[in-house]
What does this fold into?
Amino acid sequence: MTAAAELELEGLPPRLFSCTPSRLTTWVDCPRHYRMKYLDRPRPTAGPAWAHNSVGASVHNALAGWWRLPAAVRTPQAAAELLDVGWLTDGFRDEQQSASWRQRAAEMVRRYTARLDPRREPVGVERTLGARTRRLALSGRVDRLDDRDGELVVVDYKTGRRPPTVDDARGSAALALYAVAAGNTLRRPCHQVELHHVPTGELVAWRHTDESLARQVRRAEEVADEIVAAGLDPGADSFPARPGGQCGWCTFRAHCPEGQRAAPAREPWAALDDLSTAGPPLTVDD
Ligand code: SF4
It folds into this structure.
């Protein structure tokens, strides 16, 4: 019996499960990782920072800062300067490697912003959104929210080497939940989700229907039920390890024998030259 069902039997409505899309995705990817990240206290020590995450966060921060500038000074050069000023250095092998990637990332945001209309004000940048469903109190922060002819569009930046596909946009539970939260927060229709690949400027879009959004919400509620049920009986079996190639990139690998057997440890900068088809999972923003 699920936790929700138990509470309903007592005549109480189930308590809403507060979560971000990232939290739900972490459970689906690996319940053991979920336990270490969200439940274990003291929290197990995380591994060192990853250089590819520094690149991704620096690019995201520069693009957010660019949209916060007055429209008249939103130039590609301004984007490159923001990147330069806010560059994060964690995880690189040495200063030389960091400097080389700083240059590449500055060029990345320069080219990406050159394709944008700086006068087209987004509805939100790094905006926090929320929604309540039958089982969930959802919250999350979206990279950008656009207005296209009166409809909201969720924009998510990607910085990996491999451009995302339409299937990535269609299948992303996080993007669908952001669309639900955007529509709920701003009381306007939101069905379109987009992945913008900053290195190439390519974008892929998917237009959800009310039904496909409802399906993603139902699936998210099922995941929440699984998490709550595991929490009621927190044995090792309730939070099984899900070992695989991703374990090489797991920040809790040092605490997980199954993960250590599944994949070799990676250097913190290893993904910089491996952000291709077999690269690490793309970070999903909370
Ligand atoms: S190392 Fe692998 S199996 Fe272990 S917690 Fe991390 S992702 Fe899960």
Q: What stands out?
A: Residues 30, 32-33, 241-243, 246-247, 250, 252-253, 256, 258-259 surround iron/sulfur cluster (CB under 6 Å).
